[in-house]
Specification:
Layout (H helix, E strand, L loop, with lengths): L1 H18 L6 E10 L6 E10 L2 E5 L8 E4 L4 E4 L1 E6 L36 H6 L3 E6 L8 E4 L1 E4 L7 E3 L3 E5 L8 H27 L12 H10 L4 E6 L2 H14 L2 E6 L7 H7 L3 E3 L18 H7 L4 E3 L11 H10 L4 H7 L2 H7 L14 E4 L10 E6 L2 E2 L5 H9 L12
Parallel strand pairs: 1-4, 1-5, 6-7, 11-12, 12-13, 13-14, 14-15
Antiparallel strand pairs: 1-2, 2-3, 5-16, 7-9, 8-11, 9-10, 16-17, 17-18
Helix pairs in contact: 1-11, 3-4, 8-9
């Protein structure tokens, strides 16, 4: 009974902590080592002022804020950004009724944000790793188009979906049945057909007699047209160099905004990818071929691509429940040749650039998604001291902490956890 009461009170505290925010209209973080992830670089003993969810000043001559937070020399970075996973769509992988990331009939119009659960227990757990926002990707269905990404912050609030239908996800490359050629061909045909239809529609619009006959494009056509207009990015899963080269050809032909995911062979054509300015979303831990398409997987790929001028985005390879480990993936990339500054950019600014987000750097006007670390964020023993999402402070206390408290007593618990 005693353990139940402790567990119950822990859950209540967790619920309150997840939504507890600093209600001051403005606050300043002082005496911090600020990694801006901009041309300003690292600022020692710096001050960052936040108001109404935005960064409004860095190192102002005079500090005007409702609350002053002394960082005591700790490291302040932008909040880390996860990408290309199913956070908030999958609660328990083995329980089908808790999985909303896929559907056999899903197509290019699939908007999985409608099923996003901001109260997923995985979200506060992910905050422990300094993750403040995430680009969520559906798994889709049988269609080569898997649906569209959406962006959510990790506040746990019911309005935490910041943007839906952001970019179009397509899965290309090797097939267990059939040929990759058909997918590549269908993609090209869809784009070519859409260009023809747009030309016809423009002609009808210019012809007064045909104005009444002009029909609104189908929902699928509207999404394809948005791709052609550069309003949405095409986020393509592909590994083989020949597939990537074909996609680069399409990018040039149709002026597409494009992002590669996986791209194990990207190191073979790194110069072409850099020239085309296509970001590459990849994991830092792939070191063995997962298929004949990924023979060039290596722990050094992130460093090699960055050196070649490619914008690298590090991810946890779709591992939703271990998203909090993103900083450890970046740390492994550092151990294999990536510079610490580039590693931080790969989980902050580069993600924001690739997916057109209003975060990822500490600069005036940006959303105040910030993390104050006890030490180097890429060290295993480092912890999140404080975290702000949209300028509000949130706890990193998770269900795992509540479970730990339920089954241990202060005498059993490590001193670091006894308050």
């Amino acid at each position: 009974m005693k353990h139940f009461k402790v567990f119950k009170s822990s859950l209540i505290a967790l619920a309150l902590a997840s939504s507890t925010a600093s209600f001051a209209e403005s606050f300043a973080i002082t005496n911090a080592t600020v990694h801006t992830v901009t041309e300003q670089g690292v600022l020692e003993n710096a001050t960052v002022v936040i108001e109404n969810g935005k960064v409004i000043a860095i190192n102002p001559e005079t500090i005007t804020a409702d609350t002053i937070i002394d960082a005591e020399g700790k490291i302040l970075t932008p909040g880390l950004i996860g990408s290309m996973n199913q956070l908030g769509l999958v609660e328990v992988g083995a329980v089908s009724k808790s999985r909303d990331a896929s559907d056999k009939k899903a197509d290019i119009t699939f908007d999985a944000s409608l099923a996003f659960n901001p109260r997923s227990t995985v979200i506060p757990y992910s905050r422990k790793g300094g993750i403040t926002s995430n680009v969520v990707s559906p798994r889709g269905g049988d269609d080569m188009f898997k649906g569209q990404t959406f962006v959510a912050d990790l506040s746990g609030e019911f309005d935490s979906v910041r943007a839906s239908n952001k970019s179009v996800v397509i899965d290309l490359g090797s097939k267990s049945k059939g040929s990759r050629a058909l997918s590549l061909q269908n993609l090209q045909f869809k784009l070519e057909d859409a260009v023809k239809e747009l030309a016809k529609a423009k002609k009808k619009t210019n012809d007064a007699k045909d104005k009444k006959e002009a029909k609104e494009p189908s929902r699928e056509a509207q999404v394809i047209n948005a791709l052609l207009a550069g309003e949405k990015a095409l986020v393509a899963y592909a590994d083989r160099a020949t597939d990537l080269l074909f996609l680069l050809k399409l990018k040039k032909q149709f002026s597409l905004d494009m992002v590669f995911v996986g791209a194990a062979d990207a190191v073979l054509i790194a110069d072409k990818i850099a020239e085309a300015k296509v970001p590459v979303v990849m994991t830092a831990l792939d070191n063995l071929p997962g298929s004949f398409d990924s023979l060039h997987s290596s722990l050094e790929n992130a460093a090699k691509l960055t050196k070649a001028g490619v914008t690298v985005v590090l991810t946890v390879n779709g591992d939703t429940h271990n998203l909090y480990q993103l900083r450890f993936h970046a740390g492994n990339a550092i151990a294999n040749g990536l510079s610490p500054d580039a590693a931080l950019a790969s989980v902050t600014a580069n993600v924001a650039q690739a997916f057109n987000l209003d975060s990822g750097t500490i600069s005036v006007g940006k959303t105040a998604d910030l993390v104050l670390w006890s030490a180097d964020p890429f060290e295993l023993s480092t912890k999140v001291s404080q975290m702000w999402i949209g300028g509000k402070e949130y706890s990193t206390r998770s269900r795992q902490d509540a479970l730990r408290d339920r089954y241990t007593t202060p005498s059993d618990m490590p001193k670091a956890y006894v308050k």
